[in-house]
Amino acid sequence: ANAYGSFFDHVPSMQTYIDTKCSDRALVVYYEDLKLNHDEGIATLAKFLGVPLSPEKLQVVRDMTTFSAMSGGTVGKLSTILCRKGVSGDWVNSQLSAEQWSLLDQAFEEKLGNCKIAQPLRAWMVAPPNEGNTVA
């Protein structure tokens, strides 16, 4: 847990809320997917919202949603505290021991194993393959 509460509580509560209150009005966006294909993520969001997306508008949204724009505080007051490194895969720099990774995997299965919106996180459920792996 942290100042915002437990991730293991938040994710299933959001899944329940989506399933019971707004399944047709919710879109879950994953940061890693946006990093892989920023334009596709923007287009998916525009389509979900029913907003036309011209090439010019795509460029403006792309520029405003880059890590440098978001972390520079030009987008909103909270952006500087919510942005860390702007990279995917930084989990390889974790200082967790093999035992701690195992405990984390067990907690994931117990609390998020059946949670649909948590399933994309499975790609990061394996301990880093080698000590010293880093992501710049």
Automatic annotation (TrEMBL):
One of its GO terms (molecular function) is sulfotransferase activity. Gene3D superfamilies: P-loop containing nucleotide triphosphate hydrolases. The keyword Transferase applies. Residues 3-115 form the Sulfotransferase domain. Transmembrane segments: none annotated. Keywords: Transferase. PANTHER family: SULFOTRANSFERASE SULT (PTHR11783). Belongs to the sulfotransferase 1 family. This is Sulfotransferase domain-containing protein. The lineage of its organism: Eukaryota, Sar, Stramenopiles, Ochrophyta, Chrysophyceae.
